[in-house]
Amino acid sequence: MPRFDLQGNPVSPGVGIGCAWIPVEMGLYRIPERKLVSETSEAALERLMAAHKRAIQDLQKIQAATTQELGIQDAAIYGAQIAVLQDPDAHRNLERLVNEEKLQPESAIQALLDQFEGLFKDLEGGDRKNWVADLRDPWLGVIRELGAAEEDRVFEANGNGIVLIAEELTPSLVTRHHRHPLAGIICSRGGRFSHGAVLARSFGIPTVTGIEGVHTKAQPEEVCLVFGDEGRAVLGATPKQEKRATELAEERSKVHQALSGLAVEPGRTEDGTPVSLMVNIESPNDLKMLDPALSSGVGLFRTEFAYMERPAFPSVEEQAEIYESVLASFDGKPVVFRTLDIGGDKQLRYFGHPKESNPAMGWRGLRLSLEWQDLFLMQLSALVKARRKGDVRILLPMVTTVEELRRSKELLSQVVGKAEPPPIGVMVEVPAAAMALRDIAQEADFISVGTNDLAQYLFAVDRDNPWVADLYQPYHPAHLRVLRYIARTCNALGRPVSVCGEMAGQLPGALFLVGAGFGTLSIAPPFVAEVKAVLQRVSADSLRQLANRAAACHTSNDALALLQVEADRLWAEVVQGTISNRP
Ligand code: PEP
Ligand code: MG
Question: Phi first, then psi: what are they for 17, rounded to 5°?
């Protein structure tokens, strides 16, 4: 019997097998009071001081970079954070907590943070929170460093077979721990269309969420299984279950390998109608895992993750280098760079974002770039520089009005001067932009539809909020009809249009979108071969009819069922074909 066999939500497909690793995720839950077990207090203090030193070095780097980019005043905050970490009282306290109370370093820091809370207990509301945050944040950096060292130890001991277990599937959870390849992820919380989920799929990590309290149920380094297609997770698997899962994973990987071998041909439907399949990537690191020959280029490079992975905002030259490495890999194929889409759940730790009560509806994407024009101009300059290495296209996120597009084009023309500007496109992910598409599309060079956000705003449902996840319905006919309208409008205007939301990488979604008139889909790399293989088995005309029938349904369930039946039928043919073709 396994210790736990648990049903959650499928987030990223595939079978993952590995040892549980439960990093301490600060801010999400309190670090429990854990006593030292086998480690001596001298060794624990040594580990703590090494992490402390690295946290200070990290802050010093950010301080130096901020001084250079923004000036000494903006960088002063980091000096203050370093001073917090150097406080001798705090050190004496930590030594006592580890030496006398025998607390593990993470728990000792938690105890210190609790003392800070106590210090300001008489202060009211906002002031109290701000004081506590100022003292807490630098120490969270030390906990992060302790976690990174532990991560290295666990990965060294267990090779690639690690299943990451955490409370919430946030984008930073995936990017931070992506230094090592992960066999799977299991979380208590995290929507299927959240940014964390998008990353997990893009990296091809089997992932399940919705398993309440999994980070407290799992035991460190026990064998865990992740069944990403079914949304099932097993903690403390039996050897028999592990063997069965290994066979399943091998079978899956054989089908995928066979499909990848066939996927070098350009995408098309059965009757030869071309469908351009591009990839979504998040960082130049993704290039190690994908074969550029399988796609027609990059349809969405989410540039913000390259900024999130760094300790400080990169200079123009550094940004250009990142972009050029992607362009060089794609050797002349177009690469669509989406300008910074931070805000909401994507934060840069070196910039103070304001606290917003409704961040998804707030200051994010292009809104922020148009406010922080210096940074936007730096990014545009880097993109213009990178043109020496390939076909750069610029995509603006979260466009709501045509004036925002006009302002961005003015800034771009400041950067290029008299030279020809690179093509500039608009992401349609706000319903107002979809409804005003005729006006926007006439002034944009291309359109890319972000269904993840479009569905969020159309249904007034936060894509990260589990309480309303049932109402997040990308297959609802209301959304399908908006999508069909977008395709028809762009096609009538002769404006290139693609879809880069997650729906495009799901088989039912891809069938609908091609049928609705989208000639380009941009999807997470692991799904390119599957989507190509399925499209090759169905004519453009039957997809048109299927899309119209789905859009005419009254409910999401009916529309999805219709599309799913066709997707399953075609997928079964594909699998059958690859098995019978196997030598
Ligand atoms: C989208 O909203 O569909 C999209 C592609 O952008 P992101 O998921 O990064 O918000
Ligand atoms: Mg979006």
Answer: -130, 125
Beta carbon of 429 within 6 Å of any ligand 1 atom: yes
Which one-letter DSSP state was computed for residue 299? E
CA of residue 199 to ligand 2 center, whole Å: 13
What does the chain come to in residues? 583
Cβ distance 9 to 175 under 8 Å?
A: no
Is the distance from the beta carbon of residue 345 to the nearest atom of ligand 1 less than 6 Å?
Answer: no
Residues contacting residue 76 through CB under 8 Å, at least 6 positions apart: none
> According to the model, what pLDDT value does residue 179 have?
64
Options 3.40.50.970, 3.90.1150.10, 1.10.443.10, 1.10.274.10; CATH for 4-235 is 1.10.274.10
For 530-571, the pLDDT digits (tens) are 999 999 999 999 999 999 999 999 999 999 999 999 999 999
Q: Indicate the domain borders of the chain.
A: 4-235, 275-524
CA distances in angstroms from 444 to 416, 437, 533, listed in the order given: 17, 10, 32
Tokens representing 205 are: 């990590």
Mean pLDDT value across the chain: 90
Average pLDDT on 412-431 reads 97
CA distance 384 to 378: 10
Which of 178, 195, 256, 479 is flagged as catalytic?
A: 195
**387, 329 in Cβ contact below 8 A?**
no
Which pair of tokens denotes residue 365?
A: 């994407």
- Quote the ligand 2 centre to 462 CA distance (angstroms): 12
**For residues 195 and 496, is the Cβ–Cβ distance under 8 A?**
no
Q: Within the chain, how many helices (H) and strands (E) appear?
A: 22, 16
Domain 275-524 CATH class label? alpha beta
Residue 185 pairs with which residues in a beta bridge?
Answer: 164, 207
Maximum Cα–Cα distance for the chain, whole Å? 76
d(C-alpha 86, C-alpha 102), whole Å: 22
Q: Which of 289, 389, 288, 274 is nearest to 337 (CA)?
A: 389
Is 353 one of the annotated active-site residues of the chain? Answer: no
Amino acid at 134: D
What is the pairing mode between strands 232-235 and 4-7? antiparallel
Any atom of ligand 1 within 6 Å of the Cβ of 458: no
pLDDT at 177 over 90: no
Same fold, 4-235 and 275-524: no
Locate the ligand 1 atom nearest the alpha carbon of residue 195 and give its number.
8
Torsion of CA 122, 128, 134, 138, to 10 degrees: 70
Does residue 52 have an active-site annotation?
no
Residues 391, 422: Cα–Cα separation, whole Å? 8
**Which ligand has the nearest atom to the CA of 502?**
1
Q: Taking a C-beta distance cutoff of 8 angstroms, is the pair 43, 263 a contact?
A: no
What distance in Å separates the CA atoms of residue 501 and residue 281, rounded to the nearest whole number? 12
Identify the burial level of 54 via C-beta atoms within 10 angstroms of its C-beta, where 0-12 means exposed, 13-18 middle and 19 or more buried. middle
Q: Which ligand is nearest to the CA of 300?
A: 1
- pLDDT band at residue 583, thresholds of 50, 70 and 90? very low
Determine the pLDDT at residue 579: 64
| pLDDT recorded at residue 284 | 83
pLDDT at position 98 over 60: yes
Q: CA-CA distance, 239 to 236, in Å (whole number)?
A: 9
What the block records as the tokens of 72 is: 């000494």
